[in-house]
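Researcher: Next sequence.
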Amino acid sequence: MKYSLEGRAALITGASQGLGLAIAKAYVEAGADVFLCARDFKTLEQAKAEAVLSAGKGQRIEIQSADVSRQSDVEELAAQAFQLFPHLSILVNNAGVYGPKGLIERVDWDEWVRAIEINLLGSILMCRAVLPYFKARQYGKIVQLSGGGATAPLPRLSAYATSKAAVVRFAETLAEEVRNDRIDVNAIAPGALNTRLLDEVLAAGPETVGHDFHERAVQQKAQGGAPLEKGAQLAVFLASSASDGLTGKLLSAVWDPWEQLSDHIQELQKTDVYTLRRIVPEDRALK
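Model: Next structure:
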C-alpha cells in the first residue's frame, strides 16, 4: 500500500545508514522533502547521494551533522531545519546505540550513561525543539524508533533495553500532552534488523552478551533478519495523513496489521491496544 508524503517535509535523525537511511529513501520516494541528521558528515553525504536517486523534480534533500544528545546541537539543527523547510511537520527519532554490553556491575558506567543520553534524552531534546513549530502549525507527526528492549528484558544490554522502554513511555505521555494540538506521536518496533548493531553483538561474543542472545544473533545474521523496508514503510504510514488521529501507540512493523489501521483509528483510540501496560494475575487466568 502506498502513502503519499507530497508537500511534506521530515527531519530524520540517525539517517546516514541502516534503518534511518531506509526511512529517508522511503520518504523521498513518497514525495517528501527531507533533512537528514547524523554525527558523521561524510556518511551523511553518501546517504544524500543515495536518497537523491529517488527524488522527483523540485524535491529537496538537505543534511547537517549533529549530536542529538547535545542541546546546543539540537537547537541549531531544528532552527536550520525550519528555516530551510517552513512546512516541516514530521520528526523521526531514529538515532540510537546499543551501548555497553555485559553485566550491569561490570560495564563501563560512562558508556551506560552515554547510551541513555543518546537514545532517550536525544529523542526528548528533539521533541522539545520541534514542538513549538508543530504547535504553531497545529499539526505534526513524531515517529520514535523503539526495539525489542521496549517489550522484553535484554540481559547484558541493560542500557539499550532501559532507554527503549523509556522512549515508548515518553511517546505515550507526549501523545496525551499534544493531542489537542493535532500532533500524533507513535513508536515503531522495526523487528530484528541486520544492521551495524547486530554486527556489534556478534563481535562482542557470547561471553559478553550471553550465549542464548549471541546464538540468536548468529541465526539472524544467517537468515537475513527483518527487511528494513517494513519499518520504513510503517514510518511512511505514520507520517502520512492516512494515520491522522492515531497516536500514543507502539506498532510492530513485522507483526501488526498496520496497513489496515487507518480504518480503525477511532476504535483504537478508545483502547490501550498497542501500548505498554502492566500485566496483572487476572490477565493470565491466575488469582
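Model: The mean pLDDT is 92. The CA atoms of residues 194 and 221 lie 6 Å apart.
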